[in-house]
Design goal:
- The complex is a heterodimer of chains A (about 250) and B (about 110).
- Chain A folds into 2 domains: about 55 residues; about 190 residues, no CATH class.
- Chain A is mainly α.
- In chain A, helix 1 runs antiparallel to helix 2.
- Chain A contains 9 helices and no strands.
- A two-stranded antiparallel ribbon of chain B has the order 1-2.
- Chain B is elongated, with a radius of gyration of 16 Å.
- The chains are: A mainly alpha (about 250), B mainly alpha (about 110).
Chain lengths: ~250, ~110
């Protein structure tokens, strides 16, 4: 139980842990959290909220959605990498995931597009373009230096990609702070619903691939990767869902 | 008050966990597990640990509750005067709404 409690507390931000960590760990022990999966999930969502902080507040629902989309994109890229080795399997779930993810990200783009009218928006639009160029340079350099399988190189490329997505989300949220958009709740609901459907599809995809495959569900390194992807997608959906609860962005700015 | 709107929605209603925590602390200081047990027994709502500490953190930030010295690894919290006043105001508002709703339901068609 101690390991689980320590892991759940570690999910919270450092400042939060310094203030509440010890008493929170005791509460988790008192609640016998190791026997209650629902409380484990609640604790994980609490950690997401704590990390979100102001981003989760109703004053900036678009900002929450932007960061949700960032997390969703990273999880989606991880899923694409995971699915590479299972090409052609569980096609229906895979197709649902791709369509739902596309709908979610298009809804976000439509909701945020009016912010591009701001005359300073180009400064922020440069961030994803420059970031992508830097990431591509990192990939080429890593490939040039690699011989055969290179775990360190893969981690460097993945970390660089995550940084680019994070920088893009930061730029988008900064642009939205400069030029808040009054997007309707409906468009944020569509984005959150798309992410939710993609999460379910990723869950179904993993179950199908391993249940129907010959190597058994628990075999190989697949399981932790798949669980990590599904948890990240679910966290993104929860963050997006929090933004979908509010009626307008401008009304709370 | 900055950040105040994190606890109330666009209709001015309080988030339920925060209100449940205030109500639980109304009869004296309690630590996290005691609040969870009290709310489950009295209201039948299970407050998860993440939900509880999100509420405690917000209420403490707003000065509606305050932390007392730790008792071992558990830290009790108690209502502040501002917290008691806010709970009273919210309870009065809910009482009026309940009386109005029940009264009109009785007058309505069977």
């Amino acid at each position: 139980m101690t390991g689980l409690v320590r892991a759940l507390v570690a999910c919270y931000p450092p400042a939060w842990r310094r203030r509440y960590g010890e008493e929170y760990a005791q509460l988790l022990r008192d609640l016998r959290v190791h026997r209650r999966p629902a409380l484990v999930v609640d604790s994980l969502f609490g950690a997401v909220r704590a990390h979100g902080g102001a981003l989760m507040s109703r004053r900036s629902p678009m900002t929450s959605l932007v960061w949700a989309a960032g997390l969703f994109t990273v999880a989606g890229l991880a899923f694409a990498k995971l699915a590479e080795d299972f090409h052609g399997q569980a096609r229906a779930s895979y197709a649902v995931l791709v369509v739902a993810a596309t709908v979610a990200l298009l809804a976000l783009a439509v909701a945020a597009a009016p912010a591009l009218r701001d005359r300073h928006a180009w400064k922020y639009a440069v961030v994803p373009l420059a970031g992508t160029a830097l990431w591509y340079g990192t990939v080429r350099l890593t490939l040039a230096l690699s011989t055969g399988r290179n775990a360190v190189g893969f981690v460097v490329v993945a970390a660089a990609g995550t940084l680019v997505v994070g920088a893009t989300a930061w730029a988008a949220s900064a642009a939205l702070r400069r030029a808040p958009v009054a997007s309707g709740a409906a468009i944020r609901v569509v984005a959150a619903a798309g992410m939710g459907l993609a999460t379910i599809a990723a869950l179904a995809w993993g179950l199908q691939v391993r249940s129907l495959g010959g190597s058994g569900f628990l075999a190989g390194p697949f399981l932790p990767s798949w669980i990590g992807v599904v948890v990240a997608l679910a966290a993104a959906t929860a963050l997006a869902g929090s933004s979908a609860r509010y009626r307008t962005a401008a009304g709370h700015s | 008050m900055d950040g105040w709107e994190e606890m109330v929605d666009e209709l001015g209603r309080w988030a339920e966990p925060s209100l449940l925590v205030l109500a639980s602390l109304a009869d004296g200081a309690k630590h996290g597990y005691a609040i969870t047990t009290d709310v489950a027994e009295q209201v039948g709502v299970t407050l998860g640990p993440g939900t509880l500490y999100a509420a405690l953190s917000r209420l403490e930030d707003r000065g509606l509750i305050e932390a007392l010295p730790a008792e071992g690894r558990r830290r009790p919290y108690r209502l502040t005067a501002a917290g008691a006043a806010e709970l009273s105001a919210q309870a009065t508002r809910m009482q009026r709404l309940a009386a109005l709703s029940l009264g009109r339901l009785r007058l309505g068609p069977a």
